[in-house]
Amino acid sequence: MKFIDEARIEVHAGKGGDGVAHFRREKFVPRGGPDGGDGGHGGSIYAVANRNINTLIDYHYARIHRARGGENGRGADQYGKGAEDIVLRVPVGTVITDAQSGELIADLAAHEQKALVARGGKGGLGNLHFKTSTNRAPRQCTLGEAGESRELRLELKLLADVGLLGMPNAGKSTFIRVVSAARPKVADYPFTTLHPNLGVVRVAEDRSFVVADIPGLIEGAAEGAGLGHQFLRHLARTRLLLHIVDIAPFDDSVDPVKDARAIVNELKKYDQALYEKPRWLVLNKTDMLQADERDQALQRFLKAYRWKGRWFAISALTGEGCRELCFAIMDHLTEKQAA
User: Which of 40, 219, 266, 276 could make a disulfide contact with 80, Cβ separation 3.0–4.6 Å?
Assistant: First the structure.
């Protein structure tokens, strides 16, 4: 299934039915009085989060959603039937905003969470409601209200505890394959990952966390270059970022320090809040280094990069260091949750 994480749709709630001005007319019942019923309410439109859906592809093609109008009132005190509501099922993590004003309408972060996105119109009043002691034959009634119409922007933000940052081919997809049951595509060329992948990392029977792998960033991503900028929103809900760096690139012209700084600069340009999230440095592909050079190469990188935070050295290909990293992540998340 194609991964779609953005969509624009139109929603049109139903119009309320009109009230009616009517008088009871039966044999042997002179001056029966007003008996015009109310119109039925128009159908409203709701959005409901569903954990069994993981893409907005349905709304990429079906862009207009209309609810039916309510029935008009009738004589003999008969009210018009209300129209059925429409329910739009969306993935958990969907943010709904008004496409014109930018107003936040709903942030559906839990299964079965429900939000009203377009309210149906109220039905009009029949002349039955206008009867008084001095106005026994009212001829007025009201029309049904129009339903709300909006253009909405649907934006999916994946619900993950940990997000992976890094240049293309840094080893993010290999890492998520090793530590979880996710099976993203892995190949020896850049931009192998074309859409985000989620994996559940289980460190014990009752201890697990969710990790998100997004396509690699490149310099200029905040201005739209490459693929990663399209998916940075998926890191917004994460509690920890892992910055994965290829410590042993094949090409001698590639500078890991320069690439690492470029990623952080793009993150800062895109969203200051994302930049300020807790971030750990993960130096990957240590299996490509000679055993006697490994420690020197790692220290040389850390000194040049001037990194003062927490860091780990791993080989996603062989799994070396990945278990220790996962346990450290689990402890960090548990500690933050307790605080």
Answer: 40
